[in-house]
Design a protein that fits this description.
heterodimer, A: mainly beta, 4-stranded antiparallel β-sheet, globular, B: mainly beta, 6-stranded mixed β-sheet, 5-stranded antiparallel β-sheet, 11 strands
């Protein structure tokens, strides 16, 4: 069966510090991978998605970036965090080309920028 | 216009009540439809897929109306444990993105 891991679970960082969040998927090959952010009390905002190694699509301009160095690894980064970067960061995967399948989420990282 | 729209609620209902949520989507090319449940401070989890013929899973029934571009979720005999936010999600042919509604909050009270 497939599983998705995210770490860390919680993170408190000062403004201006760098960020690196990691997501890995097990039990599947060539998945679509996604990063979402959810601000407190708000809906999900798609940040990035990837259909393959090195292929990243950015949905909103911001000070975040994403990379996919391996098939089942997705990394979210920032060089300098802003207060507005606080939120719940969720990684998700889906099966490529299968419309009947859906997205599965990792447990998330709760980021607080102070 | 948003891809997917939902009434944010909250819906406050007593235990045992029947409650219905609706969701509308703007793009007629949407092909796949889902309901997710999100508990407070947790990740969204798939509740059920929505098929054209409608489908039922225990106390939950999902319906799709392609002509009117809306999806519904009916919960019968509400339990306290049904309290959560319910997210409507659509996907389009040949696209890799899923479009999420902002969610409808349900509070089931004793």
């Amino acid at each position: 069966s497939q599983t998705i891991h995210q770490w860390p679970a919680t993170l408190v960082q000062p403004v201006g510090s760098p960020l690196s969040l990691e997501c890995t998927v097990e039990g599947t090959s060539n998945p679509n991978l996604y990063w979402y952010r959810q601000a407190a009390g708000r809906g999900l905002q798609l940040l990035f998605y990837s259909v393959g190694i090195g292929q990243i699509s950015s949905e909103v301009p911001q000070n975040l970036s994403a990379s996919r160095p391996q098939d089942r690894q997705f990394i979210l980064s920032s060089k300098k965090l802003l207060l507005s970067d606080s939120g719940f960061y969720l990684c998700a995967w889906s099966v490529q080309g299968d419309l009947t399948d859906t997205q599965y989420f990792g447990p998330g990282t709760r980021l607080t920028v102070l | 216009r948003k891809e997917v729209e939902q009434d944010p609620g909250p819906f406050n209902v007593p235990e045992g009540a029947t409650v219905a949520f609706n969701c509308t989507y703007s793009n007629s090319a949407s092909q796949s439809f889902f309901w997710y449940r999100q508990d407070c401070r947790k990740e969204p989890k798939l509740l059920m897929s929505v098929y054209s013929s409608g489908n039922e899973d225990g106390r939950f029934t999902a319906q799709l109306n392609r002509a009117s571009q809306y999806i519904s979720l009916l919960i019968r005999d509400s339990k306290l444990s049904d309290s959560a936010t319910y997210l409507c999600v659509v996907n389009r042919y040949n696209f890799n993105k899923f479009y999420f509604g902002s969610g409808t909050k349900l509070n089931v009270k004793p």
